[in-house]
Amino acid sequence: MPKLSRRGFVKGALAAGAAMTLPSMEVLGANERVNLGFIGLGGRGRHSANWFNSVDGTRVAALCDPDTKHIERAAKKYPKAKKMQDMRHMMEDDDIDAVVISTCNHWHVLAGIWAAQAGKDIYVEKPLSWNVWEGRQLVDAVRKYNVIAQGGTQQRSDPLQKRIKDFLDSGELGKIKYVRCNRYGLRGSIGKRKEPLSPPDSCDYNLWLGPAKDESIYRDRFHYQWHWVWNTGNGECGNWGPHLLDDARNVVYRDQKTMPLRVVAGGGRLGWDDVGDTPNTHFAYYDTGGVPLILDVHNLPLKKGTGGGDVWEKYRTRAFLCIMCENGYYAGGRGGGSAYDYDGNKIKNFPGNGGGGHAQNFIDAVRARDSSILNAPVEETHYSTAWCHMANNSYMVGDEFTPEEAKEMIEGYKPWQNVVEGFYEHLEANEIDPDKADIKLGPMLEVDPQTESLRGPTATAKARSLMDGSWRGYRDGFEVPEDA
Question: What is the pTM of this model?
Fold first, then answer.
C-alpha cells in the first residue's frame, strides 16, 4: 500500500503551525485494518477509543493528550498504543490512518486542519468549532485535502430519525408549525478561587492551551470546567446545542436550512456567583425563513433547594426535540420518542438507539474512500454548530432587559411569549430577583447564509468579532490558518 511521508508536515507545523499542501494518498483495502489515533483522552475521548475499538478491523494505534495522566489511564486498556503529548507527532506518523478528536472545543478546528494537511481522515466531536469562521476553515480544508471527515453528531446514525421524517411526511400530524429544542439538565457552580489555579504537573499547559488566550484560571477544577468559560468553551448551548439543533436540521429542515436568517437570544449565569461566564439559563429564537425554532436551556433545578432529577419542565419541553404540528406533536430524546395528539393521547412510538452505529459508518466511509456515505459529514455539523454560535453571539452582545422588551422582540408570537414567561417563572422558582440578576437580551442578529456573516444594523464590530473569534484571537504558533 503506497504511503506519503508526513515528515515535511511536522517539520513545519512543529515550528510554527504552518499550513502545507499535502494530498491524501491513503487507500485502504476492504479487509485492511484501520489504525486510529485518539487526540484528547478525557471521559469522552476514552469512551470514543472503546467505541471505535469495537468496530471490526480497527486498532487503537496511538494515544495523545497534553496531560500524561490521561494518557496513562487510557494506556491501561491499550498498552501497545503509541503515547504522545503533542498531536503534531501523531500527524507525522505514517502508521496512523485516521484521528478521533475529543479535545477541548477551542482545539477542534486546528487539530482537524492539521490532520487534513497530513492526509489523515478525521472524526471530530461536537461542537465542530469554537466560532463560525473557523468551522468553515475546517470544512474547506477537508475538501482541499480530500479526506474523510465525520462530525460527532451521532444521532444521524440512528434509524429513529428516518422514521420520524417518514411519519411527518405522512401528513398525519398536519403541517409543522414550529420546533422547540430543549436541554434541561442540572449543573453547579465552578467556584471562584482567590488565588489562580495551577495546571496539573502532569499537563503540558502550552499544548493544552493551544489556540486559546493564556489567562489566569480561578475555577475549582482544571479539566472539564473549561466548558463554561468563553476562552475555551461555548457553554451549555455549545455543549448540548449541536445535538439538539442537528436533530432539528436533519429531521425537520432536511439540511436545506444552512444558516438561520435571524437570531435573538437572552439569559444569564444565575444563582451561582462563580467565575463562569457562559449562561446557565439561555433561550433563543431562530427565524429560518420557514418553520421557526426555539432553543431553551436551563441548568438550574426545578426550584431552589431541589436536586437530582428535578429539572425545569414547561410546555411539554422535557423532551430534547419537540415538533409542534397542526394535529399533534412529536416529543423525543436520544433514546426515542412518541407522537401525541393535543389531548395527550399517544399516536405512535418511535424507539431509538442513540446512534450506536456512527463509528461504524465513519470506518465504512474510510474504507470505501467515499464521503457520500457519511451520515454526519462535517459541513452539516458545521452548520448545526454555527446555529449554536449565533445564540451565544446574540447573548454576548446583549444588555439588561424587561419581560416586555423581550416579548416585543417577536411581538405576538405565542411560543416566544411562552419561553420568555418560562424564563421568569424559573427565576422566581429559584428565588432569583431579575432586577438584581445579571441577565442579558441580545439584538436580533441578521445572517447572510451565503457568506456566513452578519449584515444589517446589528452587525456591529463586536458582533462581527464574535463570528470569527478576533475578539480573543489565536496564540502565536496555534493560529487557525486563513488558507489551509
Answer: 0.94
